[in-house]
Amino acid sequence: MKYLASTSIAHFVNDGNFLLITLLIVYYKVLPGVNPFVIGYGAVIVNILSGLLSTPIGRWADRTGADAPLMVLGLLVQGGAVILFALPFVFPAYWFTLIFSAASLLGVGQAFYHPLGASILKSVYAEKSPSYLGINGSIGSIGRAATPAVFGILVSIGNIYTAFTYLLLSILGFSLLIYFSIGKFRRETRREAKVQKAGRVETATVEKIGAFIVILTIAVFLRSMVISGVTIFMGEYFDSMVHSPTLTSDILTLSFIPPVAGQLIFGRATSSLGGKMTTLITGILTVAFLVLFLVSESVVLVVAFYAMFNLVGFTGFPVLLGYASQQVASSMASRANAIIWGIGSTLGGAAGISIITYLANSYSIYISYWVAAVFGAISIPFVLLIPDRSGARRGKVSPGNSST
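Request: output the structure for the sequence above.
Response:
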């Protein structure tokens, strides 16, 4: 189980950094001359770089099989980003350069984990991987939920530098732990897969899985526009309601606890119902809970519906990459995951953040969220168009029926 444990720790660290810009906007806005909406574009940079780099990194991993060392490298790069994120509080006059440099480094670091972690789990656990992806994803969700609260607590009992020091040391410590645990792991490479015999049907070609990847990527792109676009200013949205950065941190943590269970639930659902059905269900519910969030007036209901939005929305790791694991051969796993996650989820997130930031700055965050709901509704028909391999239903892959 060391592979599940190590990749789960990596997911905890990686997703713990996911809300960094969302959280830090609340703290940066006290610095002289800082515009929180300008900082929002830092998240666009994170997503663009992460999305563009995921595919070449996946290609690199497929050639070498060195998923684990590359995964650790990505975490260490994120540690460098944390240092840069802290510096505006030391040199406030240079906040723009430092924040956007930090965002660029974070984007590079975030390009590694998801395609690599998923390919390791697929290689080790084969057809059971969607369920393991769910377990793994739930640990990532714990990291995403815990980081805002821990950061806020450390700021309140110490100062902003105490919080950043904790964040940096945890990244470095966990990275070393992961490397010494599975650093020598090597996955079957694409070249090795091609020379194997025993009557296996080779499925690791873009041509055979092209339609599946393209349509799923489009659906993921639109869905990610919603999730990332809504998330980026949620800290600012709640802070405008409760007028307390510390309470806002607590609300963000509370809102991101449900995905811990959601990853487990929908990871298992992907194995039992199949990836296509689970992707459809989570897509519909994501839009429904966003609409309920927007029409609610009570703070309690707003937080509750946002938590439910996160429950179904932040299930991409077990559902989308679990779906891919049912359709794509292990020898091409990192590349396929990188396309779906990097281009679909991450670049889709960049597009969503760009549009939401523009609309929030020009009109209001509330209006921008209604536009996000429209993009979510558009994504649903694309899921219905995704072609399935008949042998890949309910998580089972038939060697003799492996074409798209």
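The CA atoms of residues 289 and 325 lie 28 Å apart.
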